[in-house]
Amino acid sequence: MSDNLLIIIMIVIATLLIIAYVVAILLRKRNEGRLAVLEERKEELYNLPVNDEVEAVKNMHLIGQSQVAFREWNQKWVDLSLNSFADIENNLFEAEGYNSSFRFLKAQHKIDQIESQITLIEEDIASIRNALAELEKQESKNSGRVLHALDLFESLQMTVAEDSEKYGQALPEIERQLENIQSEFSQFVTLNSSGDPVEAAGILDNAENHILAFDSYCGENFLQLLPI
Questions:
Q1: 27/14 Cα distance (integer angstroms)
Q2: CB contact burial 152-182 (16+ within 10 A = b; e otherwise)
């Protein structure tokens, strides 16, 4: 083998090594950039004021269905904060180790896994925060809704009182059902003011449905109206 051929082979090998080194550096820097973005996303999620929002709802001293709903969402947050974030931290550490040792396939696989985890956690945290916000404003939301329902009920009562003779023998049943609706409003007030706005909202839904159905049947044929 001539000296010139040997020199050419050495130059080719050196060139390939340089290219491989440059590619490796570029891949490592790209992975470092992706890891930095993931680390930032993780920190942003961890620093969200979820704990403050949990405490705000906890201080409402909810009972009944509202308390059950709060406990479920609170437990989801506890699981996320204690387990999911720790798991992501471990995966980030492993990915950085793979990347530093030029094991790029494993590093990229781990990075893809972390991205999926963080996306899922983002969705879970959004659901938790929305549920907590809904619990926190449910009481005032109910208070606004009940005003409209009471207006409908009072209008229905006035209609029955003004045309009581029209109903004849059906009048006692009409009055009984009006009393049942009135009882639902009382139950709503008790639940909404004592810390169970979720169940109160369900009671209010029933009352509204009964009023609408009752009003419709009273205007047509009361005998078709089933007891509440």
A1: 20
A2: bbeebeeebeeeeeebeeeeeebeebbeebe
Residue found under tokens 């009352």: 207
Q: What is the pLDDT of residues 72-123, one digit of tens each?
A: 999 999 999 889 999 999 999 999 998 888 788 888 899 999 999 999 999 9
Which residue in the block uniquely carries the two structure tokens 């890891």? 35
In angstroms, the Cα distances linking 186 to 45, 64, 122, 150, 180 are 42, 17, 41, 11, 10
Over residues 108-118, the pLDDT tens digits come to 899 999 999 99
Cite the beta strand spans of the chain per DSSP E.
none
What pTM was computed for the model? 0.73
8 Å CB contact between 91 and 110 = yes
Q: Of all helices (H) and strands (E), which one includes residue 164?
A: helix 164-167
